Amino acid sequence: MTFEEFCIKNGKKEKPLSGKSYRYSHGMAGTRLYKIWAGMKIRTSEKAQPHNKVAYFDRGITVCDEWKEFKPFLLWAYTSGYEKELTIDRIDVNKGYSPDNCRWVPLEWQNNNKQSSWKIKYQGDTKTVGEWEHFFGVHREYIRKRLNHGWIFDEIVENIKNPTTLNKNNKSGIKGVLFDNNHSKWRAYISVGGKRVEDRVFKTKEEAVMARKQMELKYWGYTNIE
Fold it and tell me: Is the CATH number 3.30.70 carried by domain 163-226?
């Protein structure tokens, strides 16, 4: 189906300029499909908002030449199963927007195809980003934000293992070990997946440090403590 045939069936004709034939208009500016197309172009451009720029443009995610104009995208949408309940989805999240890499899917499908499902190999083990976040016991956005800002995975792991910042109340110099003024005791704790899973108090700093070390080995499989 050509664009003119589509317009005859679904669109409208605009009044021609003097001496010229009628020209067809898709008549869809401002519609959901037009907004999807425009949004796709904006977030992949160099002038996109910073969070979109690092997630799309900086990663080489582009819109194919064919879809630089709305007409071909409109025809593809209506011949590839578009419905108002569906959203456009890239089959391979590391490739751009094009007819051979896009489909219309329910929103929940698209969510499963986002960065948390990317697979990364590290020291011979391959896991999704979500699985690595759970493995290292970090917040669900910790790894993804750094990947979007251009960090390589080895750098992210090194930062997890050797954090440079401590809680402002920390007097021990060791993450996860601090002096509890309310109880006049040393406290050792650890978090996994953004939640504190173990929290214990000790009479001495040495006991708390040893406990923290054991917690790291138990929950993370490695320790930052010598």
Answer: no
